[in-house]
Design goal:
The protein is of the alpha/beta class. It is about 45% helix and about 15% strand.
Length: about 325
Amino acid sequence: MSHTPSIEDIAEAAEAAKSRCGNRIEHTPIVRSKLVDGLYYKTENFQRTGSFKIRGAMSKLTKVREKGDLSSRKFVTASSGNHGIGAATAAIDLGADMTVVLPENVAPMKLERIRSIGANVVVAGAEAGASELHAMALARDEGYIYISPYNDPDIIAGQGTIGVELIEDFGDRHIDNIFISLGGGGLVSGIGAVLKHNFPGTKVWGVSARNSAALDASLKAGKVVETEHLATIADAVAGGIDENTITLPLAQAVVDECLLCSEDDIKACLLTLAYEEGMIVEGSAALALAGYQQVASKLEGQSSVVLLCGGNISREQANTLLCCTKS
């Protein structure tokens, strides 16, 4: 990307995206924690596709639609699952032709769901980063319009609609902290830009799975770096990031502190959310709570939001994690 938008640019674009998308995206509820006073959950697990990703996809496609009919164009994207579900749903809603490239390690439930929505599916690449390269090659060689899962200002603005909703719902009440799982950086960049623009004092915590933490390492290095990617139950945020991603400078501008969490920490938070908070979520959502729990003792008396980014967990994985994990 030749131009990185500013925090102000993204905040303004998020407002416009919310207006464009209208009721095609859900204004998801804020749920007060049953366990901790001052802790709230922003529940994108209740979004219509089960995750926040439809926000960015709908934002992008409605923006393209302003320039002409979508039915005459072919789109391609890459996804570990949730972005593919969101992009496929947005495409069907708006009458667009969408091909979704999925990695070989995609959860079978997500693969079948994308197919059932009606998108074209291609399985290529060992992990999400390799799938993105394959999708970009299709765009370059066969004339598709590539829809990045995160490296696009319209996608980021769509994710930023969560921040717009937080401001609407909290009103004059200040949000002291927000905990957001880190993948490609579109989510934290969008929400962070909106909140920092309106409430500069809100502290944005970026939370990564230790087994796949490319953005965390890149933020610490000040440049995109390659990292090892091991299996993680936070699979929706696994994988690398583009060399020229606009999310890195945006994340540098909005993320105040980064946290790394182990697989055991994430699993424990899945249990907490299921059995004590009454919500079944995927690993990437539990990751954000794991980050909060690392520093919760320092935040007493403050208001904190944990962003539950999705709830697309298979029955088999839920059974394994919830029934066979020691509490």
